[in-house]
Each structure stands twice: as structure tokens, then as C-alpha cells.
Amino acid sequence: MMPVALGPAQAATMAALDRRIREDAWSATVYQTLASRPQTELWGMEHESGELVAMMVLAFGPWDAELELIGVATEWQGRGLGGQLLTLARQRLQQSRRERLLLEVRSNNRTARMLYERHGFRVDGCRRAYYEPSVPGGRREDALLMSLTLAASYSLL
């Protein structure tokens, strides 16, 4: 599978995949808004049938970018799709001359943390009790702040 750029026309499809992946999924309206922003890129992985099975949202700032979302449908996890999307994120940042890629992840999401660490991300900090409980009556979860430094700096000349 090769990554494909996603736009407003795929907003409902992105929202449907997001609902399959996580409880606090974004709506189609949110995806339409994100897709219309010039500083945001949405990428996906489609099965040969055309089914969207993985996606990511990158938001670009002046010097860095944030991985706002990366998700893979449960039945497609463990096949390297998340890694392919992270490789693409790194390429897009290098092409746009950004210095760092930032993200936050639930502290108990070991699978995601291991993926990020394999791709060179390091923990920078923690937001205590940041996430709502994932189960009713559960405890709030910490968010780990992670980053990947791509370059010390880029010359403006």
C-alpha cells in the first residue's frame, strides 16, 4: 500500500475509520475543517479495494509540526502501516524544512509508544491526568509528550 493524500471529499470516510479506532473520534465536520486548512495535511493508506485502513493528520507550524493523529484499523495493525505513515511524516517535514515533529500519546499505550521510539521519538514531558478515562469509572490518563528532532536548524538564506 502506498500513502494517499486525503481531502474534504474523504471526511466522512476518515470519521468512520476514526470511530473504528477510538472512542473519542472526530466528526466528519472536523475532518472537513482540517482538510481545508493550508497548514494541515491528511494522509491515508488504502487497501486495493479502496477501503481506508490507516490515516494521519499533520499540522505544520513555523519551525516544527505536530502529529495530531495517527491510526490504523484494528484488523490492519501489526503490518507496518503506522511505520509507513511515520516515515512519510518525516519526509514531509524534511521537505518543508521543519526541525521537529511533536506528538502526545496516552502513557499506557505501549504499542504506540514502542512504534514512536523505534522511529526515534523521545519523551520530553508529561501532562498529568490529561486524558479522560478510557473506561467508565476509570482513572484519567497521563499524556506523554514526545518529539523527533530532524535538524538542528535550517538557514533562512
Automatic annotation (TrEMBL):
Q: What's a single GO MF annotation on this record?
A: acyltransferase activity, transferring groups other than amino-acyl groups
Query: Where along the sequence do coiled-coil regions lie?
Result: none
For whether the record's keyword set contains Oxidoreductase, the answer is no
Q: CDD domains from the xrefs?
A: NAT_SF (cd04301)
Q: Which residues cross the membrane?
A: none
The keyword Transferase appears for this protein = yes
What keywords are annotated for this sequence in UniProt? Acyltransferase, Transferase
> Short name of one Pfam family for this protein?
Acetyltransf_1
Domain N-acetyltransferase per the UniProt entry, residue ranges: 1-151
Instruction: List the InterPro entries.
Output: Acyl_CoA_acyltransferase (IPR016181), Bact_Acetyltransf (IPR050832), GNAT_dom (IPR000182)
- Stated name of the protein: Ribosomal-protein-alanine N-acetyltransferase
Q: Which organism is it from?
A: Kushneria sinocarnis
